[in-house]
Amino acid sequence: MRLKQFTASATATALATILTSQPSEAQTFGAKDVPQNDYVAVAAPFGQDNYQLLIIEQKSDEKACWSESGSNPVVVDPLLLNFNFSGICGRATDSNGYSIRIDGQDYGLDLLLQVVERNNELLLVGTPRGAQGEEVVVGSTNGMADGYLKIQLNPEWNFAKRTYEDRTLGHVYLAKTTGEQPIDVPFADVRRDIYREEIATAVSMGFVSGFQDNTFRPEAELTREQLVSIAIEALKAVPELNLTVSEQTNNAPYPDVNADRWSAGKIQWAKENDIVSGYPDGSFRPTQPVTRAELIAVENKVAQYARNQLGEMGDLPNTQNPISFSDTSNHWAADLVTQMSAYCGVASPLNELGTNFAPDQPAKRNYAAAATVRMLDCITDSEAVGLN
Q1: CA atoms of 342 and 34, how far apart (whole Å)
Q2: Quick one: DSSP state of residue 193?
Q3: Of 119, 141, 176, which marks where a domain is finished?
Q4: Does the bond joining 73 to the residue before it have cis omega, within 30 degrees of 0?
Q5: Cα Dmax for the chain
Q6: Predicted local distance difference test score (pLDDT) of residue 182
């Protein structure tokens, strides 16, 4: 059943009130536990079949701020709209008044709390504000009905109050504690990236870095010369390899790579050691985006080179079962992709979902960092000796 248009103008005006206080920098905030029964999250109807999150707080026992009836879904009567609730009730209606906090980290700048209808119920979700990131489901109404509906928070989610130094603020958190330590990400734009942990590892190992504006740009396409640089810097991180690559070269390695280009020395070394090759017309095309298949081909070459230098000959071992990708069977890199999927999962599905590898799609910086970390793990892990 669809919710009917909300027509009570006085109530709509009240719910549309925007709190004017602006949050400070997120990293300065703490959180305080609160009595859970003093708060309720409500899916409040507005406009034509739209909903917004309303959080009501019972501050004193003078009057009830809301009442509840029914089940699956629970219908809420927001009683605070019928009297002057100052000092008795609290109300938060937008991101100035509430936000998400997970494992001690404030995600107010990353996730926008929204109420959406799916499968005949309303879900409270944290939607990524940027192009990348994962949606977080906070709770649901467990059904549909007319009016205001209670949002039942999912397990591990609770209400909390934002704190600053020794002060408790009015801002309400939908807080979750998983017991995991928050990942110390080096750039704000990878905080919600699916590869954030491996990006953090890659940056700490030094084979990839961010930009001068303190961003990582995880969704940016990787170029051929950038991949060569990542591959060589990754090899330098392999213990006992003692790799030395000159940044300079006296001769142009390819007609379209001048000797004074920043990447010329690395491209020359990669060419001489069969890590990369040019195109049939003799060009290298250094600024051309790398496809995901080309990325995996280079990862394979790097792994083989490192193992050979360390005295480990033969094919790369299978450390896990290979993945049967649904879109690589007739591709030139089909065997390589399958092999590298069994080598510590270096090759994995697009965005880590489904069975598509998308071999001809451009390789993004986030996946390149992740694939390289996995490749290095397999080279250096003494337990990665292959399946029986």
Answers
A1: 48
A2: -
A3: 176
A4: yes
A5: 84
A6: 56
